[in-house]
Amino acid sequence: MTLSQITFAAFCMFGIATATSPAQESQSRKLESQKPEAQASDPSILFAGIGVTDISPPLAFPMAGYYHERLSDGTADPLKAKAIVFRQGKKFAAIVVCDLIGISTDLSHEIRKSAFQKTGIPMDNIVVAATHTHTAPDYMRELWWNLGGQRQDPARAKYVRRLIDGPVEAIVAAVSDLQPSSLASGSATQKTPVAFNRRFVMRDGTVKTWQKFSNPNVVRTAGPIDPEIGLLAIRDWKTKKTRGIISNFALHLDTVGGTKWSADYPHFISETIKKAVGTDTVSVFATGCCGDINHSDPDNAARNKADFIGNSIGDSIVGELKDLTTLKQTDLVVKSMIVKLPLREVTTEDVEKAIEVITAANNKEKVDFFEHVTAHIKLTLDRLRNRKPIAKANELLRSGISRKLAGVGEELPVQITAITLGQDVAIVCLPGEVFVELGLAIKRASPFKTTIVIELSNAGETAYIPNRIAYAGGGYEVTNSTLKPGGGEILVESALTLLQQAVAARGSK
Which helix (H) or strand (E) holds 310? Predict the structure, then answer.
């Protein structure tokens, strides 16, 4: 095949401009060489590919999840990036789920840009999501330095590049793995209690996080849970062997602690599925809307551990696999939009106070927890809203600093994406830590029978995304949000608009 033929093949396959890099030409050649005969005769057949890479950091890299620095001293289980790529004719969609605490806009942009350059999949059709494990790297300041060309510790700089390249490699591997596939969808109900709403209405009318019913001032929990585990199985077209399982459940990933890298309870979900289905079956766990959900039972002092939680959810998944419904229609539609969410105000006085608190905390002085959280949010808002920020947040914060979003003004632009497969399956991808009430609202209004709602996709600068009513009661999650009330409802309305557009796109064929 000549160079011009390769370029033309890439144009026909991806529907993009004909100017291609050597890497794109090589990838196009590989895709063409692996192209099954069925594709030529029936372009409606859905292809699916799966790719997995290791993104575990080196030892002594900072760990995420809390408001003090801790360095890793080992690995409990490896951190991974797991990619699923769907292809139908010239249409592609890619989701890569990473064992990280969150996805900054800077990281998402770098991964999607590189993945587009290597595969031709449009950036708007690529979603980068995090599971939200708290035993993952605290990478955001290191990434900020790296993208700005600042001098770094060589080992840390090398890992930051790995954090970009690893998910891209997973996407490339998934593209190379594309093969005719059948899909089966449905849901399991998690009957063993492992998830609990962590917000509580108090007798004074406020809402507090992390309480127990033994507290006489607790009236009730402030919200629901979502017991549904959304499921999508990817099976071989001919043999019907299950190659991969996407699962989705609303439960915070903060069940391990310590100073060893761990994917948290999804690791045990994967192990349970492998034992039951096959060691080569890839489990892709995508976190549901769980901004106000954790594993602490308010009726008991003891907390469930990661292995119990993961094995229990895994058993629920395995028990439902035989009852999943095979999709008769698998036409692929991808819709996305940029949504602008209103940011909270921040004053000079707010920033000056925040500098004092953060400086004291960094000097190991005792600081009130909620003052510390507030200070982080105020300095983040200073960077987001002001073209000339008051504070040098990059010297004070390890997270919340962004190059692409620096000085965006009063509104935060975030991308949301809906990937639909036939008339029965929708995958909705949202930024931030989204309250369960908002995820439930999308599911209940969705025109698709199985709707998987994934949080922490493509952007994390929102921090928490509460529903509007939560702001009246307050609590940790409200304190730790960059958004004004109503931002969550804007996401719900926008997601439903995308789903309606997807239905219309199917109907127009």
Answer: helix 306-320
What 439-445 contacts at long range (C-beta under 8 Å, 24+ apart), as own/partner pairs, is 439/226, 439/250, 439/288, 439/289, 440/224, 440/226, 440/289, 441/492, 442/492, 442/495, 442/496, 443/226, 443/228, 445/492, 445/496
For 146, the token pair is: 């790296």
pLDDT in tens, the chain (509 residues): 332 333 323 333 333 332 344 544 555 454 444 433 334 346 789 999 999 999 999 999 999 978 777 899 999 999 999 999 999 999 999 999 999 999 999 999 999 999 999 999 999 999 999 999 999 999 998 999 899 888 778 999 999 999 999 999 999 999 999 999 999 999 999 999 999 999 999 999 999 999 999 999 999 999 999 999 999 999 999 999 999 999 999 999 999 999 999 999 999 999 999 999 999 999 999 999 999 999 999 999 888 999 999 999 999 999 999 999 999 999 999 999 999 999 999 999 999 999 999 999 988 899 999 999 999 999 999 999 999 999 887 777 777 789 999 999 999 999 999 999 999 999 999 999 999 999 999 999 999 999 999 999 999 999 999 999 999 999 999 999 999 999 999 999 999 999 999 999 987 65
Measured CA to CA, the distance from residue 308 to residue 266 in angstroms comes to: 11
Place of tokens 């993009």: 16
What is the SS3 assignment for 37? helix
- Phi first, then psi: give them for residue 216, nearest 5 degrees: -65, -15
How far, in Å, CA of 213 to CA of 200, rounded? Answer: 9
Q: Where are the alpha helices (DSSP H) in 345-416?
A: 348-362, 369-385, 393-396
C-alpha 176/C-alpha 31 separation (Å) is: 7
The residue written with tokens 């077209």 in the block is 237
* Strands, E assignment, 400-484: 411-421, 425-429, 433-434, 450-454, 464-465
Residue 459 to residue 415: CA distance in whole angstroms: 8
Determine the length of the chain. Answer: 509
- Would you say 439 and 288 are in contact if contact means Cβ atoms under 8 Å apart? yes
Q: Which residue has the tokens 């995820």?
A: 439
- DSSP secondary structure, 317-365, as one string: HHHHGGGPEEPS---EEEEEEEEEEEBPP--HHHHHHHHHHHHHHHTT-
Alpha carbon of residue 348 to chain centroid: 33
Contacts of 2 by beta carbon, 8 Å cutoff, 6+ apart: none
Predicted TM-score of the model (pTM): 0.92
The whole-angstrom separation of Cα 469 and Cα 261 is 36
How many other C-beta atoms lie within 10 A of the C-beta of residue 272? Answer: 21
Q: How far is CA 460 from CA 217, 380, 432, 463, in A?
A: 33, 12, 5, 6
Q: Distance between CA 402 and CA 460 in Å, rounded?
A: 10
